[in-house]
Amino acid sequence: MNSAALIKKHEGYSETLYECTAGKSTIGFGRNIEQNGINLIEAELMLHNDMMECERVLSSKVGAWQGLSEQRQGVLVNMMYNLGWPRLSGFKNMLKAVEALDFDRAAIEMMDSRWAHQVGNRAKELCSIMKTNKWSD
User: Fold this and answer.
1) pLDDT above 90 (res 38)
2) Residue 6 C-alpha from the chain's centroid
3) How big is the CA angle at 94 (ends 84 and 101), to the nearest 5 degrees?
4) Residues 6+ apart with CB under 8 A from 131
């Protein structure tokens, strides 16, 4: 046994946030997230993992996924990352437009939502990418 194995044995593992006996928000192998937070490398790893999961779900739910450009896939990943699949799946007209490869319509449908008002410039930028098939500057 080594130090890491001993800590794992005593702390146990939780993939979700919980309150430890000291009343601190804790995750993983007893990491006090309030005191220690996460560093940039950890945040990048979490982002990567979350994006991979978004891509996995989108590839199974959006029939046109494989034929979409990297830019348009990026728009959908961004929206799913922000909204989650249950809320993104509510964008029925936008998703139908994407399936029909009608990207102008998809952008219109994106902007015609409560989400667009909530996220402001993010929605405008994503709509522009959807329409033009070009990354923004």
Assistant:
1) yes
2) 34
3) 120
4) 103, 104, 107
107 CB-contact burial (10 Å; exposed 0-12 / middle 13-18 / buried 19+):
buried
- Domains of the chain in sequence order: 3-36 (no CATH), 40-132 (1.10.530.40)
Q: For residues 51 and 7, what is the distance between their CA atoms, to the nearest angstrom?
A: 30
What's the average model confidence in pLDDT over 46-59? 98
End-to-end Cα, the chain, rounded Å: 51
Tokens of 53: 């999961």
Is the pTM higher than 0.85? The answer reads yes
Residue type, 101: L
Which amino acid, one-letter code, is at 3? S
What is the per-residue pLDDT across 78-98, written as a single tens digit (0 to 9) for each?
A: 999 999 999 999 999 999 999
| 110, 126 Cβ separation under 8 angstroms | yes
